């Protein structure tokens, strides 16, 4: 992730690709959550694409940690930060969720994960992260 820290008064913020600013605590929270499992999915419980992504990983034999942002008290802040990390301009940007991290690194949204699956690079990523044993 490319970001730089800025300080405004007592609030430290991160600027991602010069797009927008969000509290550094949110970035720390995302990094911590992304590191808790080999595969981490940031999702919304009512999103059909999010459901499909969870099914994809479970069907492959991975056990992703899933964070349903609409059910978390700080989910709105995380959602906004993830959108900015993805380079989306608005919360209603198509394809913004789910956001997948593998081995603590952001892979991206549904489009990027499916492209990796189709071109054969997803399984090696999962193996390298320890999400698959075979």
Describe what this molecule looks like in 3D.
This protein is of the alpha+beta class and 134 residues long. The chain has one domain (24-129): Glutaredoxin, CATH 3.40.30.10. Helix content is 40%, strand content 25%. The strands form 2 sheets. Strands 5-4-6-7 form a 4-stranded mixed beta sheet, with helices on both faces. It has a 3-stranded antiparallel beta sheet with strand order 1-2-3. Helix 1 (24-34) crosses helix 3 (75-86). The chain is globular and about 40 Å long. It is found in: Cytoplasm.
Summarize, please.
It comes from Brassica campestris. This protein is α+β, with helices and mostly antiparallel strands and 134 residues long. The protein has helices spanning 24-34, 48-59, 75-86, 110-119, 122-129, and strands at residues 3-8, 11-16, 20-23, 39-43, 65-68, 99-102, 105-109.
Please outline the helices and strands.
Blueprint: E1 3-8, E2 11-16, E3 20-23, H1 24-34, E4 39-43, H2 48-59, E5 65-68, H3 75-86, E6 99-102, E7 105-109, H4 110-119, H5 122-129
């Amino acid at each position: 992730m490319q970001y730089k820290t800025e300080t405004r008064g007592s609030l430290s913020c991160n600027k991602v690709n010069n797009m927008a600013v969000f509290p550094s605590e949110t970035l720390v929270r995302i990094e911590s959550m992304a590191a808790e499992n080999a595969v981490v999915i940031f999702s919304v419980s009512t999103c059909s694409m999010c459901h499909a992504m969870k099914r994809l990983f479970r069907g492959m034999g991975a056990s992703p940690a899933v964070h349903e942002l609409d059910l978390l008290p700080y989910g709105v802040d995380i959602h906004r930060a993830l959108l900015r990390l993805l380079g989306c301009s608005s919360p209603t940007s198509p394809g913004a969720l789910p956001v997948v991290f593998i081995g603590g690194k952001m892979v991206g949204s549904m489009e990027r994960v499916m492209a990796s699956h189709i071109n054969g690079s997803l399984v090696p990523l999962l193996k390298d992260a320890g999400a698959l044993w075979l």
